[in-house]
Design goal:
Length: 105
């Protein structure tokens, strides 16, 4: 998960994008995707004991936070993709380093 986020956040800082917010979106989307994946991974680990979300326990508080992260950040990801598309920007603008030749491509 962390590798995806770190690689995804490495983007061209001054690529002449028409969209002033493109750099922010290109870095924030992988960050949000990682948060959603981390939340889902914690649910999948099945370590939280919260039979009733109305209980005021640490596990129930965390369960509520995780649900909010998944719902809200997925919506924000889709919104950022839509804003990029409206401006004619690509979904990704990753800075890829060719490690065999030491050049950016």
């Amino acid at each position: 998960m962390n590798c995806y986020m770190m690689v995804g956040m490495i983007t061209y800082a001054s690529d002449g994008s028409k969209c002033d917010n493109a750099l922010f979106f290109h870095q924030m989307i992988p960050h949000h995707i990682n948060a959603v994946n981390m939340a889902k991974a914690l649910f999948k680990a099945d370590v939280l004991d919260c039979p009733d979300l109305l209980e005021e326990t640490d596990d129930c508080t965390l369960t509520s936070i995780l649900r909010d992260i998944i719902a809200n950040q997925n919506l924000q990801i889709q919104t950022m993709y839509s804003l990029l598309a409206e401006q004619g920007e690509p979904k990704k603008n990753d800075c890829v380093v060719d490690i065999y030749h030491g050049k950016l491509r």
